[in-house]
Amino acid sequence: MQVSAFLGVSVSRAMHPPLALCVFWLLPLALTLEEDSPLDCVPRRSVPSHRANAHLFHEEGVFNYSTMLLREDLDLLLLGAREAVYALDLKDITKKLASVKWEVTQQQRDECRNKGKDPETECMNYIRILHQTEDNRMYVCGTNAFDPECDYMSYADGKLTLEKKAEDGKGKCPFDPFQRYASIMVENNLFSATSMNFLGSEPVLARSSPVSIRTEFKSSWLHEPTFVSMAQMPESDLSEEGDDDKVYLFFSESAVECDCYNKLVVSRVARVCKGDLGGLRTLQKKWTSFLKARIDCPVLESQLPYIIQDTYRLCDPQQHWKDCLFYAIFTPQSDTSDLSAVCAYRVSDISKVFAEGKYKTPVPVETSFVKWVMYSGDVPVPRPGACIDNEARKAGINQTLDLPDRTLQFIKDRPLMDQAIQPIGEKPVLVRRGATFTRIIVNQVQAADGEKYHVMFIGTEEGTMLKAVNYDDEMFIIEEVQLFQPPEPIKTLKFSHVTGQLYAGSDSGAAQIPLASCWRSLSCMDCVLARDPYCGWDKADGKCVVLSDVKG
Ligand SMILES: *[C@@H]1O[C@H](CO)[C@@H](O)[C@H](O)[C@H]1NC(C)=O
Ligand SMILES: *[C@@H]1O[C@H](CO)[C@@H](O)[C@H](O)[C@H]1NC(C)=O
Predict the structure, then answer these.
(1) Where in the cell is it found (predicted)?
(2) 60: phi then psi, degrees, rounded to nearest 5
(3) Where do the H-state alpha helices sit in 69-155?
(4) Domains of the chain: which residue ranges?
């Protein structure tokens, strides 16, 4: 047939012959139906909870399902709640395969209450950390009545077992269940960002390993931070400079560099080198590679910077790490606005600021006032904050313990970069009015036109999940699904490549839904106007189908 030639697009007609026809014929029409105000951007489809077809999990009397670990090797979703961990069937989370309780003792609860905490809420054990270890067990930590503790857990013969190792959880897991934190397991080393003490006044980014390393207690390093997320980047891969892998941390904090009377919160990205061993005298057992920069998501209407709330690392396995992106969601600093935004960043842009950018330095201006300005003096060699690379090794510096004092002292006083990180296109990919965004996942899909699209799944304060995609610089909200009814915030969001399912957790339960529900479109027109890159109209069967299910 000459159809595809007539439409002027080349599609692989061998793969989906009936599809191509319908999809491309109608796309221009769909474009003309755009909404007027992009901020109010109404989803093309709103799906109420009773029609969401979600698999839901909830156990009577158990709350706060806010920690998840996918074990695709075991076909399990591990779900951490208050005083319990569940092993659910990854394909259908309504099937509980095992569970284990981890409750605080009466004595622990009494002690917690005596320290002034609420016995019904704060003095319980909230599971906060769930990671896989290299020997295929799991590492679990809980707040444990304001006395965090960690343990190993295994799953065998249909049973979840805690080993009762009672490891100290300080610096790994928060004391306070209401405080945000972040963690990641890299080669059996736990990287954690949390507060180290009961009062919550000693924030750290730490690595728990044979040689444990953490940040300095200095306001120029971390200043009343709210930790958001962590991700690792395999920057040693094919590195000509002999660079090390990095761990990135996203957070917000009070700006030390602000020339203002009122407290100003800014968003940050920090990073450390995986193999950092600390300094020999200066920065002993502290990061020698902790660098941070402001990360901006400029929303036009706003005077105050937006605050980062969650991030998602999107890497195409066929591409170099430099092409990875971070998608991040931001919300306003003041209550006067109900906008939320998504910005996307190139990892290469972030790593360049750390590798080549200028530093900020404090200069005293009056007796008790310090101003942070760009540092324009000489920078010591090796470059402060850099990982040990071939050039350092050539100079006889094989590990961070060999770094000269000048380099260490420099970074101890100046961990902040001068330049801020800007998003791709220097603007958000999505700004929307309404339910505040809480969590984000991004999935790359190849649509019927052969193009790859980044589809964003965004959880909100009101228990909904938005599905949005950017077509030619224009944001289109495919649908908004009510996952939790009554509405409550989505607190965790995961995606499995194996099952193609999304998993969301909230205070009352967990929900599972597929990436696409093409069957909701009953006609070819509706299927195409939905503009869901996962879907296409199968002319032979007269159905709107998920593209990977199409038999050509
Ligand atoms: C746990 O869930 C309860 C019930 O929804 C909620 O009121 C409470 O704020 C939650 N606690 C934490 C620490 O999130
Ligand atoms: C660094 O490693 C090289 C080669 O392994 C060795 O010759 C050199 O002595 C080491 N330098 C230090 C300071 O340990």
Answers:
(1) Membrane
(2) -50, 130
(3) 106-114
(4) 1-53+435-552
Q: What is the CA radius of gyration of the chain?
A: 25
Give pLDDT tens digits for 264-297: 999 999 999 999 999 999 999 999 999 999 999 9
Q: Would you say residue 365 has pLDDT above 90?
A: no
Our CA angle for 345, 349, 353, nearest 5°, is 125
Of the listed ligands, the closest to the CA of 398 is: 2
- Please give the helix or strand (H or E) that residue 156 lies within, else none: strand 149-156
- The SS3 call for residue 455 is strand
What pTM, to 2 d.p., does this model score?
0.92
- Of all protein residues, the one whose alpha carbon is nearest to atom 5 of ligand 1 is 507
CA distances from 41 to 303, 328, 479 (A): 23, 19, 11
Q: CA 268 → CA 99, 229, 349, 408, distances in Å?
A: 37, 11, 14, 22
The closest ligand to the CA of 399 turns out to be 2
Note the maximum CA span of the chain: 81
Task: Evaluate if residue 22 carries a pLDDT over 70.
Answer: no
For the CA of 491, the closest atom of ligand 1 is: 14
